[in-house]
TrEMBL record:
This is SDR family oxidoreductase. It comes from Streptomyces tibetensis. It holds the Pfam family adh_short_C2. The keyword Oxidoreductase applies. Belongs to the short-chain dehydrogenases/reductases (SDR) family.
């Protein structure tokens, strides 16, 4: 089936692109025709595939600036350059601020903010000389715009990531476009760790106006759009992919006694 966005001939890197949301993004880019390279510290159990094609996996610790530089140099050497970077790698354990020292929380910020900065700087050096420039997509979170108890450092990092993307979009225009996908809750193979069994996931989904959690494929489709010529005049934007957000608590409180 033909797609409205054709990325044939484009080279894309998806950090953390082997599992969960990242795998959904990788599959969407493959379906759109892109050559996709994924990276993470550890490989998945098997290759990420879609439309009869597979993504390439290369190991790298994104918190190691030298390793990141070597990774992007390898991509240039083997593929001739880079057109799309999706900064997806990130995450955090549930940890209240007082439960751990500052060093642990700093590592969360390092993974979710500084690593995307490092990767973007390396990607920019290739993209700025590519015909047509390039596209960088940050994977943000609603945690960056609301209180995030138990993941405060993560929320702070995601807020910073969105601001970083807006500044990059100004500094690197017109050669490179930079945008952020602001995600809500997404159903992945690890959802049970956060929301419990299927009934728990369904109950959490009912708090979303659209009545369910997002599918990784839907995040992938949004990434393909931002990476494509269909979004040629979109830069410095934050696209909300959260199913309408969260139902305000006061609405339920107001009807609780009726």
């Amino acid at each position: 089936m033909a797609t409205i966005t054709d990325l044939s001939g484009r080279v894309a890197v998806v950090t953390g692109g082997t599992r969960g949301v990242g795998a959904g993004i990788t599959r969407a880019l493959l379906k759109a025709g892109a050559e996709v390279v994924t990276c993470a510290r550890r490989p998945a159990d098997g290759p990420v595939e879609a439309a009869g094609r597979s993504a390439r996996f290369l190991p790298v610790d994104l918190r190691d600036a030298d390793a990141v530089g070597a990774f992007f140099a390898r991509v240039r050497g083997e593929y001739g350059g880079l057109d799309v970077l999706v900064n997806n790698a990130g995450g955090t354990p549930y940890r209240m601020l007082e439960e751990d020292g500052a060093e642990r929380h700093c590592r969360v910020v390092e993974l979710n903010l500084l690593a995307p900065l490092t990767a973007s700087l390396a990607a920019y050096e290739q993209m700025r000389t590519r015909p047509g420039g390039g596209s960088i997509v940050m994977i943000g979170s609603v945690s960056g715009s609301r209180p995030s108890p138990g993941s405060a450092a993560y929320g702070a990092a995601k807020a910073g990531l969105e601001q970083l993307a807006r500044s990059m979009a100004v500094e690197w225009a017109p050669e490179v476009r930079v945008n952020t996908l602001v995600l809500g809750m997404v159903r992945t193979e690890l959802s049970h760790l956060h929301y419990g069994d299927d009934d728990g996931v369904a109950a959490v989904g009912r708090t979303v106006p659209l009545g369910r959690l997002a599918d990784p494929a839907e995040v992938g489709d949004a990434c393909v759009f931002l990476a494509s010529e269909r979004a040629a005049y979109i830069s410095g934007a934050s696209l909300l992919v959260h199913g309408g957000g969260e139902r305000p608590a006061y609405l339920d409180a107001a009807t609780a006694g009726t």
